[in-house]
Amino acid sequence: MIDSLAGGQTILVDALDEADGPVERTGIAEDLVELSALPSMRVVVATRSVSVADAGGPDALLSSLLVTSSASPAVVNLDDDRYFHPADLRQFALALLCQDGAPHPGPAEAAWMGYRADP
User: Fold this and answer.
1) pLDDT over 70 for what percent of the chain?
2) What's the first-to-final CA gap in the chain, in angstroms?
């Protein structure tokens, strides 16, 4: 995804760790690093925490993005406890089970109806 942000451009890449293989991941990472060097460009990359744990390794995906430590201020580890709120998780799970906000929640008599009837 590319979007404008304050006169510049933002590139958002989700699930870089799911690219076809290590060669592809590294190539994409190198391209993103080059793009991030442009003054009007902002690059945001999402990847799994497994890559964060291996951030210091020579072949690690985050190393390819020039991130050398999982403690880097460039890393936001969403698995960190400070981002975990059990009440929010329960609310999200209930919304999914009840199909809240779904324009077409599924066939009648499906499980979502039972969850809506008895939360």
Assistant:
1) 84
2) 37
